[in-house]
Design goal:
The protein is built from six helices and 14 strands. The chain has a domain of 166 residues: 3-Layer(bba) Sandwich (FAD/NAD(P)-binding domain), CATH 3.50.50.60. The strands form four sheets. A five-stranded parallel beta sheet has the order 3-2-1-7-14, with helices on one face. Strands 9-8-13-12 form a four-stranded antiparallel beta sheet. Strand 4 and strand 5 form a beta hairpin. It starts with 5 loop residues before the first strand and ends in a 7-residue tail after the last helix. By secondary structure, it is α/β, with parallel strands linked by helices.
């Protein structure tokens, strides 16, 4: 698994859109997620129709059960092999050399390289999930928080602000509340999605804006994918 041009951490709506847009254009992408079984899986009702030209629009059908939406998206992502590689692993730290991100470290042991890293980690940074009186370190039901990655980012000087999402009971799953952290507004550029403190690092989705609709998440991911395509096709130097 060498020669990736972009590494995306997180395979929700935003991260999957980034990876899909890049791979469809012939770029080599590693999409890393803690759970391939929950890739592109909605946990609340889809209320806004998807925007044209997104992966979301390709797989969406009104009334489609959440798991089938996930299955359709995963099939399309897997169809982009060998340009796109899906990997189940937990990112625990950035891999940084000379002030530039060159990949990520993982809990499982291996580290993975790419000159551009996208954090699309949703509601998982320092997350605490509450169901009734029970609280656990999770970003949503059954999925562990990115506590190690969160600590690594804080040690590198990144500032965060608290955020919260709530999910009502849905399809037999209990309702819950998740408290997490997103990057403070001064840490990232909403036009380019760049994180200012390190070269080659980007963020998109709930970890920047605190959570929006699935439509907005997918649109943001698709937009970042287009921006990265432009950078890869027309590099302007070492910091591009």
């Amino acid at each position: 698994m060498e020669g990736f041009e972009v590494l995306v951490v997180g395979a929700g709506f935003a991260g999957s859109e980034v990876a899909y847009r890049l791979a469809r254009s012939g770029r080599r992408v590693l999409l890393l997620t803690q759970s391939l079984d929950s890739l592109f899986l909605p946990v609340t009702p889809v209320t806004d129709p998807p925007a044209e030209g997104t992966l979301f629009a390709e797989v969406y059908e009104e009334g489609l059960p959440p798991f089938l939406l996930h299955a359709r998206a995963k099939w399309r992502l897997e169809a982009e092999r060998p340009r796109l590689h899906l990997l189940q692993a937990t990112a625990t730290a950035l891999w940084v050399e000379d002030g530039r991100v060159v990949g990520v470290r993982t809990w499982e042991g291996p580290s993975y390289r790419a000159p551009r890293v996208v954090l699309a980690v949703g509601t998982f940074l320092g997350a605490r999930l509450s169901v009734g009186q029970i609280e656990e370190p999770a970003g949503r039901l059954g999925e562990a928080a990115y506590d190690d990655l969160f600590e690594d980012l804080k040690q590198r000087g990144f500032a965060f602000v608290p955020a919260e999402q709530r999910a009502a009971p849905y399809k037999g799953a209990p309702g819950y509340r998740v408290r997490f952290y997103r990057f403070a507004d001064g840490e990232w550029d909403p036009e380019s999605f760049r994180l200012f403190r390190l070269e080659g690092l980007y963020a998109v989705g709930a970890c920047t804006l605190g959570g929006r609709s699935y439509r907005e998440e997918s649109l943001a991911g698709a937009r970042l994918g287009e921006l990265l395509l432009g950078e890869l096709e027309h590099p302007s130097g070492e910091g591009a």
